[in-house]
């Protein structure tokens, strides 16, 4: 490199770094931080059409009604059950259908559901599992029930079977492809040969090597998908029960009510949920880093 | 005694193992010298049960191994890469074969501690493979392979990726442990010096054919092994005369 080139590179490199960081902050951090700050200001009565000046009243209302905690607990239940079932199913497919996944025949069936939006998946589950849905009619026609009303409530039900099923159907293809990619990237195929050579059967290898390796490597993605389910909106709106509401549904209801005084509560719920997610992420990533 | 008779393996029209036969007494190391692509790895994988030969037989102590699956064969193949289990510590990697065999916890602790000492890895027992150097990883793989005293150890150029100094250390370690535990092994290498260093018996492999020599002298004397060329090179270097292959 010439002297002039060296001078130029020494001058431009640190400068470019600062600009890149500033550009990243502008694109990624600023909108989120700005939204959070505005939501916080709104929930404290400092912004909005009906702002009255600083007050803790909206937070107190949200807290004392118990709606936020109830819906947070309900969202956690949905998220945990859905991600657990989806992970188990995806592990089974990734571990026992390796050849089909490699040859592409199973991959085709997995890529297809990935293109289905959440709202369509919600409708699909609704069409299949309501009391007058397709499954109910098939069961009725086969004589297992004498009346369509005898079909169990699987949509709008208290246990949220429908919401969980819709999320599982959406998550399984994504997680299967993720596990399959990790399986190859972590050399699990040659490791299985090593394991067999050392005297272990397939099930021993699966339990002691494959599953721990896959789960550990996929942990950040599983956590992010869990958070995605926690904050899901369309599916619980379509097929959720009347008794329980997931956090996003609760917040949007507060925003869209005719009573404009409820809007600060919607912001308080959103801000509280965001802080909860950030706390969850920071604790989890610290733990993951410690175990890495 | 390990006995292999007329082992044959071909991929389409390409013969990889051509009527390979050998006898190896228990506790001895057969050094197999050969260039890349001569069929050495296929021979070892066939012995380990990881590949099915087209014809021929493999016997251990008069007992046929042909129908025995890899996990029951107790013929451990040591890959060129260490291939350690990434989420397990050094201790648990070495203990793997013992845990598979459901040995008592006290035995596992005792045997692994002893092996760690042999491998000079005591202070690394709780580290993960990613925290080790290439030589250390290869030592762990070696310890993991021999801790349950398999019938035969099959080493596929295990030290090829190591630097010269680490390689020499590993060769000494292998020799010491092979003698101590009476390990029966096939040690495949493309390095003339390494083959002479580790072998009790010697063989040369080319184009799928294996030639087993009756003595070290016969191995050195055969021009195709390249030992004489190597000796001539070093001797010319010592006398400072130009070497002419």
From TrEMBL, chain A:
It is a multi-pass membrane protein. CDD domains: TM_PBP2. The chain crosses the membrane at residues 18-41, 74-97, 109-129, 159-183, 222-239, 267-285. GO terms for cellular component: plasma membrane. Its main location: membrane. It holds the Pfam family BPD_transp_1. Signal peptide: none annotated. Gene3D superfamilies: MetI-like (1.10.3720.10). SUPFAM superfamilies: MetI-like. It comes from the Bacteria. Residues 72-284 form the ABC transmembrane type-1 domain. GO terms for biological process: transmembrane transport. The keyword Transferase does not apply. InterPro entries: MetI-like (IPR000515), MetI-like_sf (IPR035906). It is found in: Cell membrane. The keyword Repeat does not apply. Keywords: Cell membrane, Membrane, Transmembrane, Transmembrane helix, Transport. Belongs to the binding-protein-dependent transport system permease family. CysTW subfamily. This is Putative spermidine/putrescine transport system permease protein. It comes from Pontibacter mucosus. The lineage of its organism: Bacteria, Pseudomonadati, Bacteroidota, Cytophagia, Cytophagales.
Automatic annotation (TrEMBL), chain B:
GO terms for biological process: quaternary ammonium group transport. GO terms for cellular component: membrane. Gene3D superfamilies: P-loop containing nucleotide triphosphate hydrolases. GO terms for molecular function: ABC-type ferric iron transporter activity; ATP binding; ATP hydrolysis activity. Residues 2-232 form the ABC transporter domain. Keywords: ATP-binding, Cell membrane, Ion transport, Iron, Iron transport, Membrane, Nucleotide-binding, Transport. It holds the Pfam family ABC_tran. SMART domains: AAA (SM00382). SUPFAM superfamilies: P-loop containing nucleoside triphosphate hydrolases. PANTHER family: SPERMIDINE/PUTRESCINE IMPORT ATP-BINDING PROTEIN POTA, SPERMIDINE_PUTRESCINE IMPORT ATP-BINDING PROTEIN POTA. This is Putrescine transport system ATP-binding protein. It comes from Pontibacter mucosus.
């Amino acid at each position: 490199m010439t002297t002039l080139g060296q001078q130029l590179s020494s001058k431009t490199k640190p400068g470019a770094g600062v600009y890149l960081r500033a550009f990243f902050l502008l694109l990624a951090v600023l909108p989120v931080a700005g939204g959070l700050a505005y939501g916080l200001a709104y929930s404290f009565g400092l912004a909005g059409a009906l702002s009255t000046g600083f007050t803790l009243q909206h937070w107190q209302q949200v807290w004392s009604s118990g709606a936020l905690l109830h819906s947070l607990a309900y969202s956690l239940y949905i998220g945990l059950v859905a991600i657990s079932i989806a992970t188990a199913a995806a592990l089974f497919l990734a571990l026992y259908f390796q050849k089909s996944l490699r040859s592409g025949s199973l991959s085709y069936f997995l890529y297809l559901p990935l293109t289905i939006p959440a709202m369509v998946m919600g409708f699909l589950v609704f069409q299949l599992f309501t009391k007058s849905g397709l499954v109910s009619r098939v069961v009725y026609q086969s004589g297992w029930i004498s009346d369509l009303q005898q079909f169990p409530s699987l949509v709008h039900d208290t246990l949220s079977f429908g919401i969980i099923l819709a999320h599982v159907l959406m998550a399984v293809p994504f997680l299967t492809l993720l596990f399959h990619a990790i399986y190859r990237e972590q050399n699990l195929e040659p490791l299985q040969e090593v394991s067999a050579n050392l005297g272990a059967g397939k099930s021993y290898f699966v339990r002691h090597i494959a599953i721990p390796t896959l789960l550990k490597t996929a942990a950040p993605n599983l956590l992010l998908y869990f958070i995605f389910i926690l904050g899901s909106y369309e599916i619980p709106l379509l097929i959720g029960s009347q008794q329980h509401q997931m956090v996003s549904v609760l917040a949007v209801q507060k925003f869209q009510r005719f009573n404009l005084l409820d809007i600060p509560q919607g912001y308080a719920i959103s801000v509280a949920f965001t802080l909860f997610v950030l706390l969850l992420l920071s604790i989890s990533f610290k733990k993951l880093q410690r175990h890495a | 005694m390990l006995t292999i008779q007329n082992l044959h393996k071909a991929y389409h029209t390409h013969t990889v193992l051509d009527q390979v036969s050998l006898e190896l007494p228990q506790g001895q190391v057969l050094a197999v010298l050969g260039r890349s692509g001569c069929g050495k790895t296929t021979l070892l994988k066939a012995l380990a049960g990881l590949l099915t030969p087209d014809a021929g037989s493999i016997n251990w102590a008069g007992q046929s191994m042909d129908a025995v699956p890899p996990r029951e064969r107790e013929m451990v193949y040591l890959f060129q890469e260490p291939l350690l289990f990434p989420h397990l510590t050094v201790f648990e990697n070495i203990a793997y074969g013992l845990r598979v065999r459901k040995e008592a916890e006290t035995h596992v602790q005792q045997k692994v501690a002893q092996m760690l000492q042999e491998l000079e890895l005591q202070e690394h027992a709780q580290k993960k493979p990613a925290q080790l150097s290439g030589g250390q990883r290869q030592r762990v793989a070696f310890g993991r392979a021999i801790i349950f005293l398999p019938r035969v150890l099959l080493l596929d150029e295990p030290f090829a990726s190591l630097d010269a100094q680490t390689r020499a250390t590993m060769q000494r370690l292998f020799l010491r442990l092979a003698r101590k535990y009476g390990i029966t092994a096939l040690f495949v290498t493309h390095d003339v010096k390494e083959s002479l260093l580790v072998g009790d018996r010697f063989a040369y492999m080319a184009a799928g054919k294996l030639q087993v020599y009756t003595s070290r002298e016969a191995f050195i004397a055969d021009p195709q092994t390249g030992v004489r060329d190597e000796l001539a090179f070093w001797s010319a270097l010592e006398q400072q005369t130009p070497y002419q292959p």
